Protein 1
Amino acid sequence: MKFCLFSAAAIAAAALAAPSHAATAYAIDFDSTRTGSSSTAGSIDTETGFTSLDVTNGGSASVNVSGIDFELFTTNVNASRRRAGPNPLTRDFIFEEGGNNDAVGILIGGAGDLAAGTWQVEVWAWDADISAQLDAMIIGSRKDNAETIHTTAFAGSPTDPFTFNLVSDGTRAYDVFVRENNDANKTRMNAIRLTLVPEPGSLALLGLGGLALIRRRRG
Ligand SMILES: [Ca+2]
Ligand SMILES: [Ca+2]
Ligand SMILES: [Ca+2]
């Protein structure tokens, strides 16, 4: 019997073992000083609790957060803007427009970088100056470049993200993208946040493991 309890503790310890990147949340605000195609008179304005990714010059801008390189990617030539409103998170963004199926996105490092588990993904997509044209955008994710589409009809929001779950196996490469699905061929991406969802099974095992340790000490 004691052997069984010890096994439970060992399994619980394994569940606790830190992956290569142990962070349980990544929050990135795409920031830009670009107020026009040839003007960068704005200021970098980062939302509280978010890491700044300076996308002023677009391209493949990147930022390392807790060991993972978050890097922009795009289907064509991307660009950024900073608007007057409405808040530090959604006033600045990377964008792509002009062509059918134009998309922008962000790589979550490379193969094996995103720890195994279920991640809640929040994507902010908004542009206060052209909000009426953003009547529909596609939000998707990729696992080794294989797409999963999570919505085809996100109309954007000055405050609220589109939210979905992404399951990582801890070995593949993942990314998240926004693709136009509107007559204006316009897409925007303002910020992203990933939050690890606790696994009920792991919590149960941890409870068992803790119990086993207590019993061993008493026994
Ligand atoms: Ca932003
Ligand atoms: Ca910002
Ligand atoms: Ca279109």
Note: The chain has a mean pLDDT of 89.
Protein 2
Amino acid sequence: MQRSDVLIVGAGIMGVSTAYALSRAGRNVTLLEQFRLGHDRGSSHGKSRIFRFSYPDTSYVEMGIESLALWRELEEEGGVHILEQAGGFDVGAGIESNAAALEACGASAEIITGRQAAARWPLVRFPDEGPVLFSPDSGWTDAELAVRTFTDLARARGSVLNEGRRIVEIAPSDEGVDIHSLDGSWSADVVVVTAGAWVRKLVGPLGIDVPVHVTRESPVFFRQAGHAPTLVEWGGELLRYALPDPDHGLKAAEHMVGPIVDPDDDGGADPASIERVTKWVSERFPSADPAPVEAQTCFYTTTDDERFILERHGRVVVGSPCSGHGFKFAPLIGRRLAVLAEEAL
Ligand SMILES: Cc1cc2nc3c(=O)[nH]c(=O)nc-3n(C[C@H](O)[C@H](O)[C@H](O)COP(=O)(O)OP(=O)(O)OC[C@H]3O[C@@H](n4cnc5c(N)ncnc54)[C@H](O)[C@@H]3O)c2cc1C
């Protein structure tokens, strides 16, 4: 049986950033992925994800600041540009808490009127009433390029990626941990499970409870000339967001409204959500083509308080950092999962 220092199950953004962090520490890493790298059946696919410091909670602002430095480090090492910081807006209920958290962490922020914002950013039609929070550090990451860059750099340091291998069993022992697919087996000192929406299926049989549920979300894409800044509209129960999309111009969606699903069940984007998002885009982005170009599906793996689960259970490290907002922190989360794995080495 092939032996490594660390096995990683799942080559989404969290698995590949962990492999990158461990490979930099000289560890011998093997990644197992049930589909192909960059596939569109999980949570890390597509061309863009919002990057922001702007949260009502200072712990996320601090994580954002730390992650920014790590994204820049990755870009330098890979010779690529992943994170575009063109600024971003928060509008709606509670943005004062975001402004206070940003200020508390020494991050730049500006509260302006909708009229002032519209004058500076004519692609967006802001709400007439109420303040607008501008955060110059906001922007978006090229998700596909991020996954590829972490993987390429980890491989350059000897990490191995096995695609098309669905792990069906994890068997920890005193000597290490063995994992099995239907057609192969691997062993190591420790396994890191970054299996996204499938995490409960994999670690549940080990008696490890990961309190998450899975929903199928429906991002929608629109043609728009020029890139508008990112926009997050907080509205009590409903949060909507929009960001640039390199292919079509604009990506928009509702946050956490999808049906609870089994990730192995097929299913399409939600027509009702597409309709609501299309109406919202016609209000906020008047220059965008009102007819959606396409809609995709993507899984949220969500905890009740939207916090990330990063835990070690003996020789099994579990990383479930999603709740629809984990991508921006990926380089930092990869490091934290690597530290947990190192504890068992
Ligand atoms: C619509 C949408 C919009 C989002 N927008 C943002 C945003 O703007 N900003 C932000 O910061 N975050 C955002 N997120 C969240 C972010 O994309 C996720 O937190 C992140 O991609 C999770 O990565 P992951 O590696 O945990 O999961 P995944 O990418 O799903 O990776 C898990 C991998 O494990 C593999 N796997 C599972 N089981 C097995 C098995 N048994 N054997 C082998 N392989 C297995 C899967 O095939 C998959 O490739 C968004 C998410 C969605 C869905």
Note: The chain has a mean pLDDT of 96.
Protein 3
Amino acid sequence: MKGMIFRAFIDHVEDAYGLNVADAMIESCNLPTDAAYTTVGTYDVAELVQMLGKLTELTNTRIPTVLNQFGEKLFFNLANSHRGLLGEVNDSFSLISKIDNHIHVEVRKLYPDADLPDFTFESVGPDQLTLTYQSKRGLADLAEGLLRGCFAYFKESVEIIREDISGGDSKHVKFTLERSRPNHG
Ligand code: HEM
């Protein structure tokens, strides 16, 4: 997993829980890298899982909640640091329909060793879309957070209905997205 994800995670922990908690989280882990991540370096996702475990112990929170909140912030971070990749999209559904066949493809050109999930999507109507996430890393909660960040980025109200196809390990998850339009009644 790319160092930019680890650095964004530690920044998020510092912002959300404070420097002391971020330091305690890192010190209580046994990280081969000592959390010295470079943006374009590649590191074992197990280090992120270790930090998540310690953070939820220290803050009495749940991993799905932390990954969701981090994902929302991470979307803005990735979108703002890779503006060119977003192109001229003006709404969340247009962006989401481009994740697998454009955005992540361009990401893989930039970072050939990136660990990217697989997405398939189906447009059911102008305001309904299903997106299926698949990854051996089981980060569907991060994907859900990134989706929420995408809706916030485009200032849209979208309901997420989630179905875990892989029996609860977050490796294969279907998201049904229903967008509500502001009524100009
Ligand atoms: C709503 C839109 C998006 C979703 C749902 C999404 C989902 C994900 C997920 C779940 C991962 C973690 C890897 C895994 O689960 O196996 C990931 C990794 C990543 N995504 Fe996306 N992504 C989105 C948009 C973007 C955008 C806009 C960018 C940049 C322009 C981007 C760049 C990346 C990068 C660099 C990684 C890290 C790969 C690595 O660590 O090796 N993503 N994405």
Note: Helices lie at 3-17, 19-27, 45-59, 63-81, 83-86, 92-96, 99-110, 140-153.
Protein 4
Amino acid sequence: MNYTPAIDRLERPLRDLRVSVTDRCNFRCVYCMPKDVFNKDYRFLPRAQLLSFEEIERVVHAAAELGVTKVRLTGGEPLVRRDLEVLISQIRAIPGISDISMTTNASLLTRDRARSLRDAGLQRLNVSLDAMDDETFMRVNDVDVSVRTVLDGIENAAMVNFDSIKINMVVKKDLNDHSILPMARFFHGTGHILRFIEFMDVGNSNAWDLSQVITSGQIAAMINAELPLRPVEANYRGEVAKRWEYLDGGGEIGIISSVSEPFCGDCSRARLSATGSLYTCLFATVGHDLRPALREGDADAVRGKLQALWNARADRYSETRTQTAVVHIRPKVEMSFIGG
Ligand code: SF4
């Protein structure tokens, strides 16, 4: 049965579903889960409030019928949730889903775990790494996990042949911008795509300020001065990162410029929280609870709810961020609650 693809009010199709499987993480990155907020008194979601794998599978199934082809597993840190392989193999079996990826800090990614995730059907990995030296990295992640630990996770993943491994570095001025070139030098020629992410005002806890943003233009210029680059065409409409390749054949980098060059016009991403709420923007202030449709309705009810939510969507936060002094009545959802 073919269903009408979900198209929002800005003519953007629903293509990507990011699924947060937990709000917990073993890191306390200052741009996402700063320790002063996410401390020992912070009340994380009790397991009973998390969607079951079967419920996540039903949401993904409905989303696939509306046009979703890509699913990304996120958190918090997804690897802190047990038995992810079960969920991955369930999603793998859904008609229409052609791409399953995961964003992780790789600190828990042993060789065996990488193998079992790959065998379950996980195709691509995005690994967060924000510096090459321990002093800076520990200042960013705030939990004393070393660069070596994450590099070991990346090597374990490389040994089991994921389709791609991308490295995500969030760049914040006067925190880790001095690591831009060391990161570029390290991943140059490795075949892994290093992506730089402009520091964003996600959630309400990271004390974001525009003056702390190193723009994509500045990042590209910094690298180009040592490792000459040229821009490359996007792989597809809605690709988040701007692509650059090294003139010397040393591979590719990407830059995600939500602040200096917003890309809302092609945004085809929806986000599902671990509690079953759908968010139509990373900077949303409201989530839409799918549990009533999931628990009292049938597949038509879930699909109908998703379609109605997406068709009513008009989000373009990043395009409005600097144009107007947008005063937020309601706090934005935390990135750790819906994944990046
Ligand atoms: S700000 Fe919202 S609408 Fe714009 S690209 Fe990000 S998630 Fe999409």
Note: The radius of gyration is 19 Å.
